[in-house]
Amino acid sequence: MDSLVLDLQKSTLDSNIPASDLLRMALVVARKLDVEELQRWIECELKGYHDAPIPDYRTVCGTPVAFNQYRGWERVMTHLLDPELAQKISEFHIPYPIGELEADLRKDRENGSFLITYPKVQEAILIKALNYPATPAVQVSGSQFHRILDAVRNIILEWALKMEKDGILGEGMTFSKAEKEVASSTVYNVENLIMSSNAQIQKNTQHSNQTLNIGAIDLDALGKVLHTLKEGLPELDLPKDQKSELESEIRTLDAQLESPKPKSVVIRESLRSTRNILEGAVGSALATGVIYEIIQLLK
Q1: Residue 277 CB: number of other CB atoms within 10 A?
Q2: DSSP category for residue 167
Q3: 103 φ, ψ (degrees, to nearest 5)
Q4: Whole-angstrom Cα distance, residue 50 to residue 275?
Q5: Centroid of chain to Cα 106
Q6: 195-213 burial, b for 16+ CB within 10 Å, e for fewer?
Q7: How far lies 100's CA from each of 46, 48, 107, 187, 276, in Å?
Q8: pLDDT digits (tens, 9 = 90+) for 155-188
Q9: E strands, 112-271, where?
Q10: What is the CA radius of gyration of the chain?
Q11: How many other C-beta atoms are found inside a 10 Å radius of the C-beta of residue 38?
Q12: Euclidean distance between CA atoms 65 and 234, whole angstroms
């Protein structure tokens, strides 16, 4: 007889299964075991974070832009702004259901980046702070949406592995009375699961600053790598969609360098995406050199 928990583990390792489907599988397990904290997290991921605090792994960083009725979308010159304001308009906490993120990624494979507009209340505050009559938004790379999906997948896997360790496997679509008793006496803390999967969560407040220390990044070295990459970008033989995604990653890294509080977790994810894209530039000495420098930065 199949095991619910082992099936869930296998499914997290199958990249063809969407994160939204994994969440539904996990919800079945959480409800049958009456694990309330996991249920709440899963329901927020499936339905959106309407009133609940948004986990930090759902924070994306990108290029601030503004819509001018005469010139269209144009980049906001963040270096001319107060550093704190520049950071605020470079970040966005994604509250949308995970299914919407997956749908956006399916629809917009070619451009490799997304334009996210702020909620009306936040938009009004930013327009006033910018003293600029234009609608602000953030342009982010598709890889940051993938990062959110991967974080969710990792959290579910961590939970499923912990249940197996605790002797909770399930048989068919049911759990034994003993398994339910173990689950009820075990604390499956969502925050601990998220931290152990190298993702982050904010508790109690949406706007607090929490960082996961995964090792400091040499920002001077990062600046030199970006300079080399920007100069050599026209030479890179990459498909249009990959070049667009690479440009978006460069903007993300630029925004982090300009930020008064750069986030190592965002920089590292963006560097990994940049490295993956450059691996497609076969035979390029520039790409090979930058990949080596990125590996050194990620150590």
Answers
A1: 25
A2: T
A3: -65, -40
A4: 35
A5: 16
A6: eebbbbbbeeeeeeeeeee
A7: 9, 9, 10, 31, 25
A8: 999 999 989 988 998 887 888 889 888 888 777 7
A9: 113-117, 135-141
A10: 21
A11: 23
A12: 23
pLDDT for 208 beyond 90? no
Predicted confidence (pLDDT) at residue 199 exceeds the cutoff of 60? no
The domains of the chain are located at 1-210, 219-298
Q: Which residues pair with 140 in a beta bridge?
A: 114
- Distance between CA 295 and CA 276 in Å, rounded? 11
The length of the chain, given as a count of residues: 299
- Give a three-class secondary structure readout of 52-120: CCCCHHHEEECEEEEEECCCEEEECCHHHCCHHHHHHHHEEECCCCHHHHHHHHHHCCCCCEEEEECCH
Dist CA 155 CA 194 (whole Å)? 6
Across the range 61-85, mean pLDDT stands at: 71
Within 8 A by CB and 6+ apart from 6, the residues are 160, 164, 169
CA torsion, points 17, 21, 22, 28, in degrees to nearest 10? -140
> Of 286, 220, 278, which is closest to residue 247 (Cα–Cα)?
278
Q: 260 — phi, psi (to 5°)?
A: -70, -20
**pLDDT given at position 99:** 94
Q: CB-based contacts of 183: which residues, under 8 Å, 6+ apart?
A: 33, 34, 35, 163, 166, 168, 175
Whole-angstrom Cα distance, residue 216 to residue 181? 43
Q: Cβ(11)–Cβ(24) under 8 Å? A: no
State the amino acid at position 35 in one-letter form.
Answer: V
The structure tokens listed for 262 are: 């750069």
Distance CA 66, CA 286 (A): 33
